[in-house]
Design brief:
Blueprint: E1 2-6, H1 13-21, E2 38-47, E3 64-73, E4 100-106, H2 125-145, H3 148-158, H4 162-169, H5 177-186, H6 199-213, E5 216-221, E6 241-243, H7 246-257, E7 261-262, E8 271-272, H8 278-294, H9 299-310, E9 313-319, E10 337-340, H10 345-352, H11 354-358, E11 360-365, E12 371-372, E13 383-388
The protein binds guanosine-5'-triphosphate and magnesium ion.
Length: about 400
């Protein structure tokens, strides 16, 4: 499970990344601070299933389970990156493992089209929304188009399935047969012979593939600047927009790390834990004001919603003892798996181990103690024991 942070230079991607991973990465107010992608681990939050028992699992905090996901912070992209502008399109390749993208937009309008700092309010965040879709589509188009005339003749001559050929050509961009199948229907191209596809047809296909294989959520960042100056300009008919202040989240996490405050990521308030010096007091008062006006910094909400809404994932807990909800060594709810909604007991068995999947007998719902068949669809929060003949 990997989320990618993408957007124009200087929009706050690395600040967002640092605030969720606490990795020591470079942040600066000029474009192209990040050149090599940063990889890290962030945590999404979900209510822990142990809360319905008398005893706690010890893995969650105040009933909130933190489930790890991978997150990548890539170099900034400028319009026409696919033609080599800015740092070019090599960096688009860093997004290939991402199943979903958080598009970080500078909603304070304090960066120009190339990401150079300008006066707050003088940029155009509205224009930043669409360009990323287009760059990703054109990146995919260029990959698909490589040797296409030869490949399309081969598809025809050898009767290769078109969705397989498209997925194969784009596998480096993380595109699967299911994505290709969806996009070929969506763009009405199953009915047109691949040797006859025009450039426009292929771009249209890539647009559908992008939507399906790299869904996006928008972080309207820097809401702390001039009372959320440009947030209303960040609009989209089809994408969720979440106002964020990555800088405020980073300040809160840093203060919590040094023990000055107690803060739960995503919360609308924090508790002061020590005596504050005047500078700390001033800084924290400003952040408190932001939390009061916006509810939270938005950063945790962004990653939670990217995983649960955009990617439609659920969390399930494998156990070996369905009575105690523990593993062999007595740890309660030792693991929390993120799985696609619609996954079955058999999918979960494979997730534990290939052998367990291959030798699956049945599953047990640890709540009801009912036996479940291999095709039974898992629900969010399920606690499941898998029974198999694997050694
Ligand atoms: N006020 C404010 N400033 C922010 C926020 N997030 C980031 N910044 C500032 O914006 C500038 C750019 O931040 P980075 O995180 O380096 O931006 P980036 O998108 O990674 O930039 P590149 O690596 O160059 O593409 C820095 O000066 C940050 O301190 C925010 O939420 N509020
Ligand atoms: Mg950066």
């Amino acid at each position: 499970m990997t989320l990618g942070l993408a957007g124009k230079p200087n929009a706050g991607k690395s600040t967002f990344f640092k605030s969720v991973t606490m990795a020591d990465v470079e942040i600066a107010n000029y474009p192209f601070t990040t050149i090599h992608a940063n990889h890290g681990v962030a945590y999404i939050q979900t209510p822990c299933s142990c809360m319905e028992r008398d005893n706690r699992c010890g893995k969650c905090k105040d009933g909130i389970r933190y489930v790890p996901i991978d997150i990548i912070d890539v170099a900034g992209l400028v319009p026409d990156a696919h033609k080599g502008k800015g740092l070019g399109n090599a960096f688009l390749d860093d997004l290939r493992q991402a199943q979903a993208i958080i598009h970080v937009v500078d909603a304070s309008a304090s960066t120009d089209a190339e990401g150079n700092p300008i006066d707050p309010g003088s940029g155009n965040p509205a224009a930043d929304i669409e360009f990323l879709d287009y760059e990703l589509e054109m990146w995919m188009f260029e990959i698909l188009n490589r040797n296409w005339s030869k490949l399309s003749r081969k598809i025809k001559a050898e009767g290769i399935k078109i969705e397989e050929a498209v997925a194969d050509q784009l596998s480096g961009a993380g595109v699967t047969i299911e994505h290709a199948n969806y996009a070929l229907h969506d763009s009405d191209l199953y009915s047109v012979e691949p040797t006859k596809w025009s450039e426009d047809d292929m771009i249209k296909l890539c647009r559908s593939i992008r939507k399906e294989s790299k869904p996006m959520i928008i972080a309207a960042n820097k809401f702390d600047v001039l009372d959320g100056l440009g947030i209303s300009l960040v609009q989209s008919d089809e994408k969720t927009i979440i106002p964020t202040s990555a800088a405020a989240e980073l300040a809160l996490k840093s203060a919590a790390k040094t023990g000055i405050i107690r803060y739960t990521p995503g919360a609308g308030s924090f508790e002061v834990a020590t005596e504050l010096n005047p500078a700390q007091e001033k800084g924290l008062n400003a952040v408190q004001h932001l939390l009061e006006t916006h509810g939270s910094t938005g950063v945790q909400e962004c990653i939670n919603r990217a995983v649960f809404e955009l990617l439609d994932m659920i969390v399930v807990y494998p156990v070996e003892d369905e009575g105690k909800w523990t593993n062999k060594t007595g740890d309660m709810l030792p693991d929390a798996y993120l799985m696609k909604r619609g996954s079955t007991c058999k999918d979960m068995a494979y997730r534990i181990h290939t052998d367990i999947g291959d030798h699956f007998l049945y599953a047990v719902d640890a709540r009801t103690k009912m036996r479940l068949a291999e095709k039974h669809e898992l629900q969010n929060g399920d606690v499941i024991k898998i029974v198999s003949t694997a050694k």
